[in-house]
Amino acid sequence: MSLTVGAPTRVQPVPAPVAPSTTPPSSRPHPNRRLGIAAVVTSATAMGAAGLFGRMATPPGATLGEALTLGRMLVGTVGMLLLIVLSRRLGAIRRTRLSPSIVLGGVFLGLSLATYLSSTLLTDLSRAVVLHYLGPLIATVLARVLLKESITRLDALSLATAFAGMLLAAGLIGGNSTARSDQETLGTALGVASGIFYGLALLCYRYRSDMPADVRSFWNFAFGAVATAAMVVVTRPDVTGMTATNWGWAAGFFVVCGLLALGLLVVAGKHLRAAELSGLSYLEVVVALILGALAFGESISLVATLGAGMIIAAMTLPLVAGRRRRTTDPASQIAPVV
């Protein structure tokens, strides 16, 4: 019996065991609604004091909105950088990829705050605040169109109630109709511009929610400083008339209305939908109304009181919703990377 020798048998190699990956799957942070609400309430309260600080920091007859806002942005930039260094997270700044939404968010915010502060010096504080708060409405509409964020009936009711109360609180409805000077007209125009820029800034915060809040705040302040520095170069405000008292108020303005208020606004933008952020941020109008009465003797009419009550009622609507199920639309859960 012959033995036929064929081709050698091919032995299949045994695959080496694959070590489990130590890299966690990439995922975006889950929104923390309670943190977002606390952040925007604190931010709006501090922002509501901007008119008070700005007026007290400005010598009579001067207009220093751009200069004060530049200081506000610079202090915020340095403050956030120090916090990042102390937390040993400086590498996070180097690893962060900048994108148009990051740059434009800071630029729009700087332009908004500069025009708003100038508006408070040229017209009534309540009117300037109301026009500035066209921004949240603009942001909500743009978020619905561009990001496909849902606007529930509760959201719509909250925004409508807050906006109506805001108009009443500012005297735009039910107030006295009087002729306005050129200065007040310019203040109104600057207020409208601040509202538009603010709305665009809020929309930018809905992008790149993957970025850590402290890093986002740092770049927000940095690019805001660049924008306001350009405005200072053009307007060349005169700060030689500022006294020690003016500078003291300016320092408080830089920290309270800058580092604190704007840093928390970025945190809120990461955890709340545009409609929620808009409704709660109207607290600034109530704060400005109260401070105007206490510090400058501005009267609060019955209509204005009703408007403030409507704003507070509108603010509570997102809170009453509590743990209501958030929308399942992926576009509203995860902000796109832009």
Terminal Cα span: 78 Å
The sequence of SSEs as H and E is: HHHHHHHHHHHHHHH
Strand segment tally? 0
Shape: globular
Largest sheet report: none
Catalogue the unreliable spans.
1-11, 18-27, 325-337
Provide mean pLDDT, rounded: 80
Number of helices in the DSSP assignment: 15
Structural class, please? mainly alpha
Helical amount: 55-70%
CA radius of gyration: 25 Å
How much of the polypeptide forms β-strand, as a percent range?
A: under 5%
Task: Characterise this structure.
- The longest helix has 28 residues, at 244-271.
- This protein is mostly helical and 338 residues long.
- It is globular.
- Residues 1-11, 18-27 and 325-337 have low confidence and may be disordered.
- It starts with 32 loop residues before the first helix and ends in a 5-residue tail after the last helix.
- α7 packs parallel to α9 (182-205).
- It is built from 15 helices and no strands.
- The chain has helices at residues 33-48, 50-57, 65-86, 90-95, 100-122, 125-132, 134-146, 153-169, 182-205, 213-235, 244-271, 274-281, 283-296, 302-321, 330-333.
